[in-house]
Design goal:
The complex is a heterodimer of chains A (428) and B (103). With 428 residues, chain A is mainly β. Chain A has a single domain, classed as TolB, C-terminal domain (Neuraminidase). Helices cover 4% and strands 32% of the residues of chain A. In chain A, strand 9 and strand 10 form a beta hairpin. Chain B has a single domain, classed as Cytochrome c-like domain (Cytochrome Bc1 Complex, Chain D, domain 2), CATH 1.10.760. By secondary structure, chain B is mostly helical. Chain B is globular, with a radius of gyration of 15 Å. The chains are: A mainly beta (428), B mainly alpha (103). Chains A and B meet through loops of A and helix 5 of B.
C-alpha cells in the first residue's frame, strides 16, 4: 500500500454542471476539486469509518477489517476465512460474489467505548449462510479487536446461484451501516437476494432498512409504523438492494440509494414504516411466471430494451399496487448504472456544495445504457425533500467503480473504489 | 507416428496463430471495452472475474461462446452483448493480450 501524490483538477468547469436546469444566475458555483489516490494496493475495499484525528478503519470484502493510523501505519485487525496477516482471523466470516465484509461504522461514543460495528457474511460448516452485524472493541493501541458480539444474526444471504443477471450466490446483499446523528440508532441496509418472497414480507430482514440499538434490539417505535406482524427491527421495507444511507444535515431524514434492475437507480427519503414499492413476485401486477420465481429483470432480462418499457412492466416503485409507497426523489433519468453509496458534503470549504448529497455509481453498461461511473452532487432541500439541482463531481484523476462514500474529519470526501484504492476529493 | 506429427503440426500452427495476434490491438480493445468491469490490469473486481494470465484458448472459447449468444456463467447478460460484434481477430487479439498477463 502506498500514498500517491495529488493530481490537480485541470478544468472544473468542463466536468461540472452537466444536468443543470436552473438559470445561470441561480446555479451554484462549483468548487475547485482535486482527486488523489489516498491508499492503494487494497482488494475490493468496501467501506470506511474515521476517528476525529484521521485514523481510518476500512473493510476489504474478502479480507477483513483494518485500520490506517495518522502516520500511515496499517494494522490488520479482523481477518476473514483464508486471510493472513491479521491480529485475529475467524473462519466463520467469508465472501462470495457481492457478499463479504461490507459496511463499517464507529459507535457515536467511540471515544469512550472504543466500539466498532461491521456487516459481514457468516457461515459455519454446511449450515446456511447469513449476514450479520458484529460489534467489537478496538484495543487502545489500535492493533487488535476483541469482545465480538453478533448483534444481528439473521439478515438473509443468497445461498445458491439462480438464473438471473449477476445471479451468483451472495447477490443483492445490501451492507451499509450508519448511526443517525438524530435518534442515535444504527441503520442497517439489506438486499433482496434475488428472492421475491423477501421485500414485501415482514417475517424476514431482507430488502429492508433496519433501525436498532447497539445491542441489536429494535428501536422503539419501529413496530408502530410497520404493518402488523413485522419484525420490530424493520424501519422500512420493499427495497431492492440498498447500498447507501446518509442523513440530511438539516432534517436528519435518512436518505438511501437503491440499485435498480436494468432501469431506475433511486434516491429515496425514508419515513418510518415506509414501503419502497419493490415487489418482484411472479403472477401479479400483470406478470406471469418468471425465472426462479423472480421477475426483477423482466420482461427481457438478458437483452437491452427501453428502460421505460421495462419500468412499466417491472417498476422499481410500484405505485399502482402500493399507492402509499415512498416515491423516489430521483431515478437517475430511468437508468440503472450501479448506484452504490451516499454521503453529505460537510464544511465551508465546499462553498455552495456544503450540505449537498453525493451519490456514487459503479457503472454498468448494458443494453445501450452509458456505463456512467461517476459521483453526482445533488442539492436536496430538506423540505419535501426535493431535488433542486444535480451536477457531477469532477474526477481529474479519472473515474472508477466508486463503491463507498465517507466524509473525513479533514473535510475531504473519501471514496472506496473496486479497483483496490481509496480516493480522496479535496477542495481549496 | 503419423498422428504425433499431425498433432505437432497443429500445435505449431496454433502457436504461430497466437504469435500472429496483435497484443497491442488487444490491449487497446481491452482498455476501451473491458477494463471498466474487469479492472485496469484485468485482475478482476467486484463480481467480475480476473482475466490476466488465463489460457488464451480458454479466453477465446469463452468469447466465442458469448458471441454466439450462449449463456455461460452469471454475467452472461453483460458479456453476450459485449462480445456480439467482436471479430475473429478481435477475439484472438484480446485473448493473446490477456494470456500474456495483460501488462
Amino acid at each position: 500500500m502506498s500514498h500517491k501524490p495529488s493530481l490537480r483538477s485541470l478544468s472544473v468547469a468542463a466536468a461540472s454542471a452537466v444536468l443543470v436546469s436552473l438559470p445561470l444566475a441561480l446555479q451554484a458555483k462549483a468548487p475547485e476539486v482535486s482527486q488523489d489516490v489516498y491508499l492503494d494496493g487494497l482488494e475490493s475495499p468496501w467501506d470506511l469509518a474515521f476517528m476525529p484525528d484521521g485514523t481510518m478503519f476500512f473493510t476489504e470484502k474478502c479480507k477483513g477489517l483494518s485500520v490506517q493510523l495518522p502516520d500511515g501505519t496499517v494494522n490488520h485487525l479482523l481477518g476473514m476465512s483464508g486471510s493472513e496477516g491479521y491480529a485475529m482471523t475467524t473462519d466463520d466470516l467469508f465472501c462470495s460474489g457481492q457478499a463479504g465484509m461490507n459496511g463499517v461504522t464507529l459507535d457515536p461514543d467511540f471515544a469512550d467505548n472504543h466500539t466498532i460495528y461491521v456487516y459481514s457474511a457468516y457461515r459455519v460448516g454446511d449450515d446456511p449462510a447469513s449476514n450479520r452485524v458484529l460489534r467489537l472493541k478496538v484495543g487502545g493501541d489500535l492493533a487488535t479487536v476483541s469482545d465480538r458480539t453478533d448483534i444481528v444474526k439473521d439478515i438473509p444471504y443468497k445461498q445458491a446461484p439462480t438464473d438471473h443477471p449477476f445471479g451468483d450466490s451472495g447477490a443483492h446483499n445490501g451492507g451499509r451501516i450508519r448511526f443517525s446523528p438524530d435518534d442515535g440508532f444504527l441503520y442497517v441496509t439489506t438486499g433482496d437476494n434475488h428472492n421475491s418472497s423477501l421485500p414485501q414480507f415482514g417475517d424476514n430482514l431482507g430488502a429492508k432498512v433496519l433501525r436498532i440499538d447497539g445491542n441489536g434490539d429494535a428501536a422503539p417505535g419501529n413496530a408502530d409504523a410497520t404493518p402488523e406482524g413485522f419484525d420490530p427491527r424493520i424501519f422500512t421495507y420493499g427495497h431492492r438492494n440498498v447500498q447507501g444511507i446518509a442523513f440530511h444535515p438539516e432534517s436528519h431524514q435518512p436518505i438511501v440509494t437503491e440499485h435498480g434492475p436494468w432501469h431506475s437507480d433511486e434516491v429515496n427519503a425514508l419515513v418510518p414504516g415506509g414501503n419502497s414499492g419493490w415487489d418482484p413476485r411472479p403472477n401479479m401486477a400483470g406478470r406471469g411466471d418468471c425465472p426462479d420465481d423472480y421477475c426483477g429483470y423482466q420482461p427481457n432480462q438478458n437483452e437491452g430494451m427501453d428502460p421505460e418499457e421495462r419500468s412499466a412492466y417491472m417498476p422499481m416503485t410500484d405505485l399502482e399496487t402500493y399507492p402509499d409507497a415512498m416515491k423516489p426523489l430521483w431515478n437517475n433519468n430511468g437508468y440503472s448504472q450501479g448506484i452504490s453509496s451516499a454521503a453529505f458534503l460537510e464544511g465551508e470549504q465546499w462553498g455552495d456544495w456544503n450540505g449537498r448529497l453525493v451519490v456514487s455509481f459503479m457503472g454498468i453498461g448494458f443494453g445501450g445504457t452509458p456505463v456512467g461511473q461517476r459521483i453526482n452532487v445533488i442539492d436536496l432541500a430538506a423540505d419535501g425533500p426535493t431535488v433542486q439541482d444535480i451536477t457531477e463531481m469532477p474526477v481529474p484523476a479519472g473515474s472508477a467503480r466508486f463503491r463507498g462514500l465517507v466524509m473525513g474529519p479533514d473535510g475531504a470526501l473519501y471514496v472506496t473504489v473496486d479497483e483496490g484504492q481509496i480516493h480522496r476529493f479535496t477542495v481549496e | 507416428m503419423k498422428r504425433t506429427m499431425l498433432f505437432a503440426l497443429a500445435c505449431a500452427l496454433g502457436l504461430a496463430q497466437a504469435q500472429a495476434a496483435d497484443t497491442a490491438a488487444g490491449k487497446s480493445l481491452y482498455a476501451s471495452n473491458c477494463a471498466q468491469c474487469h479492472g485496469p490490469t484485468a485482475k478482476g473486481m467486484a463480481s467480475f472475474p480476473a482475466l490476466a494470465g488465463k489460457d488464451a484458448d480458454y479466453l477465446q472459447s469463452r468469447l466465442e461462446t458469448y458471441r454466439a449468444g450462449e449463456k455461460v456463467g452469471a454475467n452472461s447478460s453483460l458479456m453476450i452483448p459485449n462480445a456480439r460484434n467482436l471479430s475473429d481477430d478481435d477475439i484472438a487479439n484480446l485473448s493473446a493480450f490477456l494470456s500474456n498477463n495483460a501488462q
